[in-house]
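Subject: Pentatricopeptide repeat-containing protein

B.,
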Amino acid sequence: MDWPFLVQVVYGQAMEEKPFHGKLVIRSSYYKCSSKHTGEPLTSSKAIEKKVVKKVGKREHHLWKKRDSAGSGQKALNLIRIISDLPNEKEAVYGALNKWIAWETEFPLIAAAKALRILRKRSQWTRLIQVAKWMLSKGQGATMRTYDTLLLAFDMDRRIDEAESLWNMILHINTRSISKQLFSRMISLYDHHGMKDKIIEVFADMEELRISPDEDTVRRVAYAFQELGQEEKKKLLLRKYQCKWKYIHFKGERIRVRRNTAPDDDSLTNYN
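Prediction pasted inline below.
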């Protein structure tokens, strides 16, 4: 009697049963599923994986942390309007400025800084000095930018003694953090007023702090050495700091040429 050929599929296995000399022989083999049946469980993580998009909520702004500059421009103009008609007396100006901040929860530093920029553009040096000094007396705005603006105002208003007092204070407090711009500003101030020996003193402090001068400062210091008859120091200065290249206009184009560092360089003889 022939045994029927049976195929059973159990958990992905094919089981084959057929006779062999009166004995039942069972063979099994794995089968490959089609593209529709991958053999993976239906609850695969890839099958049910969903894209989770995290919604970012609105950022909270706390009034006590936010330093908004909205309206600071109008505040700056209001400050200038308040002090414009006042006499040049410290008590009157400081009193008006104190009223300007009377209802402020914190010092309006942004508005005050904008007021300084407006006064600088208008060349109102006396008022600029008054506002800057008032800010510093309140412990506000003690930055290199404020010092630079104040030194410029002292220069333009010919108040050299006050500029020197401020400069000495800056040197004493911020010895290792003075910017190159402040050194250049002070050298420019002394140059405007023909104080050649003072230029050399400031430049000596600059070298001691290992601050490299910019090109304008190099020209001013070199000219000061030349006026003081110190030609050797002038040559050493130019050899050490002067840029090896300069730009000239030739046939309508700006080209770079190697600079002549000889003592009779036109950039120094025609400095003034």
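The radius of gyration is 40 Å.

T.
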